[in-house]
Amino acid sequence: MSEVLFETKGVSKIFGLFKAVHDVDFSVLENDAVGIIGPNGAGKTTFINILTGEYFPEEGSVFFRGEDITNLKSEKRVAKGIIRTFQLVHVFDSITVFDNIALSIYRKKEGTAFPLNLYTTVFRKNREITESAEKALEVFDLIKDRNQLVRNLSLGSQKRLEIAMAWAADPEVFILDEPFAGISDHEIDDIIGILKKLVHKKTIIIVEHKLSKLTEIVDTLCVMHEGKMIASGPCEETLNNPIVRKSYWKIED
Amino acid sequence: MKLKNLEFLGPVFIIAGLLVSRYLFPNKITFFTEISIYTIYVMGNNILMGYMGYTSFGQPFYLSCGAYSAAIYLAYIGGNVFVAIFVAFLVGLLLSFILGPSLMRLKGSYFTLINASLCAIGVFMFERLLIDITNGNDGLWYRSNMHKTPLLDIRMPQNYFFFILIVLLAALYLYRKIDRSALGTVLKAASTNPRKMRFLGYNVFRIRWMAFTISVVFSTIAGALYSVNFGFVNPSLGENSRAIEVLLATLIGGIGTVYGPFFGALGFLGMKDFVSSFLSRWEFVVGIMTLIVLFKFNRGLWGMIQDAGSFLADTGRKFKNNSVKTAEK
Amino acid sequence: METWFTAVIYGLSTSGILFLVSLALSIGYGLMRIVNMEAMLYYSFGAYVTYSIVSMTGSFILGAIGATVIGGILGFVVETTLLRKVYHRNMMFTMVVTFSVFMIGIGVIQFIYGLDPKPLASPTSAIIRFMNVQIPLYRLIIIGLAVVAYILIQLLMNKTITGKALRAGIENRENVEGLGVNINRIFTTTFVIASAFAGLGGALNAPLVMVGPYMGFDMLLTAFITVILGGLGSIKGTMVAALILGQVVSVGGTIWAPLAFVGPFIVMFITILIRPTGLYGVKGTAFGFND
């Protein structure tokens, strides 16, 4: 039986006079796949930033496995198994693909934000790291780019690499911020194929615009509008919810 | 393939090169000693500039702190040269311990400027505030206080050269390890995207502090080696206007590389040696050179050597393939 | 009592020079997002040109005018030939570039004038007596000129079209360019004005300090501290910061001599620790905080 993994109670984030996130209650069951949709400026990314510790909310609390993590720093949340990706792809473009993935694995392996054996570890010489990295490279079809500098990769490959980095860290929960933005349909299908293998094995939270693609993966859908979480529930049900139809689709019944 | 396996011998090649040059040009021995010390100094700066992406206009401050701590030890407390160098090492750790927490929280240009200020404060301190200890601009002389060292009497310039080579060899291997280890990768990653680094779960601040410590210690040790070499120090070692020299040397060598600092020191000091034979002050040349390197030459000497190497390897491979094909025919 | 009063007046004149010199840095960062270390060249060249003109003609006023013109011309040349090429590059790159230009300038000064510092007599030795305190007239002139400069630049920013376009351009460059305004020309104009003020600052400071090749270095850090304390791009902030630092140097130096040198650095460390954006800075526009 799955339990509640991630939960927020009444969180708000205010920028000056603007309430970007307004009193949001949200919960995710373990091994559930949740999509968060909403128009631009609805506060989706801000909400993700609260979940991952980029921002600390002015009001409300964030819980992870029942523990209050409202004021925990981002690097400590990673240690609890919360990994995110970014809307604008965030990878390290001056080092190789392999090193990017190795960084993620190494962090997981050492289990600390400041590993003391930094100086004595050589990624390429460490069997544990190379084996896990090879596996990640294979799953995400990056083998041939193994020793390329990331800046020479296409945007689609960089997106895949960013998800691969999250995957390689073997987290409890994946938080993906617009994983399909700015890449071709073909590349989107690749990523969906990979994500489908994770569904019901890991907890996944996806923020996305492309609804049609999203429903292929998620079971639960949440809708944000003007900083508020206006609906959540199974996909079909949410999409037919009159409030959602009114405020999101601008459909009057 | 074979070339790659020889890569770990790089530091040995450099030391051997210096050793051969020393016998080819026997009257240039002080020059080679200076190159070796300067390489260590440039390495310190390269950690900041090449790996962490921080430009410091205050490297002379760390250099002169190291030089003065060794000098003060030799002038007033004891005569053991090794202890003097160790004192500079400790001072480096102390400096980094005190300054690191605030400096490593700064971003970009604040870091540069605070370091420039440290440099000015350092000169002021050694020239005026501590004048009773440092003799101000007259400098501190202590060569006669230095004791004979066992095995190799490093008070003699020709012996000191060998001692420096040993230190340099160790420094090069340490440095090569930094480049290859997780530390080098983490630093480079954090300099391109510190935010992502935090979301991978790394404590960027502490890792940078650690690298800063290494950088400061390299600089203070270089300073101590200088002061032992010259037998005296004066405040001009830490002048603000000299901050650009080490930046230029780093750029000439090629930033963010293992052997860049050596070629940078070689290129920079070689040029200085050449230019100063017909110019007494040479800020002008340094400025022009920096601009040229920045705009036209940004991979540096080591980058050029690497390019030449891969070009040769490519042509070699083509040549080999061709000969194989002709043989098949 | 008299000592303190004198110290305050001397401090005000220091503030005047600081304000004139720092303006180029403040505008350079505030408008173009570059740390233009070479700004101190306009100051040093201003001082040297004043020295030359005074030794030729004996007129300090001509010297000061010449310094202002030279400052402006140098600013124009550097901005159009070099700075424009590096606006889009990263901060570190531009800092090293402008620092190199600064070094080249120092080299040029050394070629022309040599290494020895040149003394310059004060243009007027008149003394004003005020309640038992003797104040050199020259100090008061500096204060007066700085005030005039401040009023002029405020008028430029607030009352003219150029100033308005400029302020809009700082906030959103694309928008202003979209309106068909040639933002480069506006930047150049402002930069030239600021450089001219720096030249004037050099002229005014020449009789107070030794005119030497490294005088720009001594001023560079103090000017930067002024800009950091004031908040980048804020002209009012630069003025207030110059007032504070002038007193720190002058009154502080009267209390304990080394404070005249170390005082500004202490101010800077405190500023960066407590309020990195400076007194009047906008959040997010402090040095290096905009990444």
Keywords:
heterotrimer; A: alpha/beta; 2 domains; four-stranded antiparallel sheet; C: mainly alpha; two-stranded antiparallel sheet; 74% helix
Topology of helices and strands:
The complex is a heterotrimer of chains A (253), B (329) and C (291).
Chain A: E1 4-15, E2 18-29, E3 33-37, H1 44-52, E4 59-64, E5 67-68, H2 74-79, E6 82-84, H3 97-110, H4 127-139, H5 155-168, E7 173-177, H6 185-198, E8 203-207, H7 211-214, E9 220-225, E10 228-234, H8 235-240, H9 242-247
Parallel strand pairs in A: 3-8, 3-9, 6-7, 7-8
Antiparallel strand pairs in A: 1-2, 1-4, 4-5, 9-10
Helix pairs in contact in A: 3-4, 3-5, 4-5
Chain B: H1 2-5, H2 10-24, H3 29-52, H4 59-77, H5 81-103, H6 108-129, H7 131-134, E1 140-141, H8 157-180, H9 182-192, H10 194-199, H11 204-230, E2 232-233, H12 243-253, H13 260-275, H14 283-296, H15 300-328
Antiparallel strand pairs in B: 1-2
Chain C: H1 2-32, H2 39-57, H3 60-86, H4 91-113, E1 127-130, E2 133-136, H5 137-159, H6 161-171, H7 173-178, H8 183-205, H9 215-230, H10 235-255, H11 259-274
Antiparallel strand pairs in C: 1-2
Distinct helical segment count of chain C = 11
Radius of gyration of chain B in whole Å, from Cα? 21 Å
- Give the number of domains of chain C: 1
Query: What is the SS-derived class of chain C?
Result: mainly alpha
DSSP strand count of chain C: 2
Biggest β-sheet: strands ordered side by side in the sheet of chain C:
1-2
Name the shape of chain C in a single word: globular
Q: How much is the radius of gyration of chain C in Å? A: 19 Å
Describe the fold and architecture.
The complex is a heterotrimer of chains A (253), B (329) and C (291). Chain A is of the alpha/beta class. Helices cover 34% and strands 25% of the residues of chain A. Chain A has a six-stranded mixed beta sheet with strand order 6-7-8-3-9-10, with helices on both faces. In chain A, strands 2-1-4-5 form a four-stranded antiparallel beta sheet, with helices on one face. In chain A, helix 4 crosses helix 5. Chain A is globular and about 55 Å long. Chain B is mainly alpha-helical. The model of chain B has no long low-confidence stretch (mean pLDDT 85). By secondary structure, chain C is mainly alpha-helical. Chain C has one domain.
